[in-house]
């Protein structure tokens, strides 16, 4: 089962530290991280109610929502806008794909001595919670695919 | 689950302790800077003690964590004590756990516990 968001696009609030405004509306993508989390939460909730479905641990749901939130936020803040979003449950687990308008691959901030220790937790968090993570650049953007074992 | 309905309310509790109550979701859309700003102001409070009530936070991602870390740094600079009060939702606890920041903060089970020496 694959679920696509279907809301207009709206960038992160500027008060947070300068998130860029969203690009012109891209159809069929969540308009912000909360909308994307709602898609994933709904998908996992529906799956947990299927006959014979295994119980979904609170931490697994939390992990899925954290990864979703970080990826979608990154797409808006650093990727020139969210251009695609899918969430799918398979035998492997939850597969998320998040596409944005930048070919630049995310990098991990290295905290050196005396550096500002505030910040840089988002992308390492995605790495930590994903069983598989691929970044595929393509003309005009990139697609990040992550697997979270349920 | 909407991330845009964040409410940050600063109160003064017993002994002049600053209590910052947070309701809603903490993410990149919900104005985490509001929380960050409230924490920086609170760091200068005369009681030298601030409690952030996170019991009303259903979700937080790294944007929320960054706001709390900024507040922690501001408290470190003034020598004030910052405490995070639960009970924490599973998702919020998980954020601290997976980022390895559980040890960076002082947690209390609820706001009342923060007033107990």
UniProtKB/TrEMBL annotation, chain B:
Coiled coil: none
PROSITE patterns named in the record: STAS
SUPFAM superfamilies in the cross-refs: SpoIIaa-like (SSF52091)
Molecular functions per Gene Ontology: anti-sigma factor antagonist activity
Domain STAS: 16-117
PANTHER family: ANTI-SIGMA FACTOR ANTAGONIST TM_1081-RELATED (PTHR33495:SF2), ANTI-SIGMA FACTOR ANTAGONIST TM_1081-RELATED-RELATED (PTHR33495)
Protein name according to UniProt: Anti-sigma factor antagonist
Source organism of the structure: Streptomyces nitrosporeus
Phylogenetic classification of the source organism: Bacteria, Bacillati, Actinomycetota, Actinomycetes, Kitasatosporales
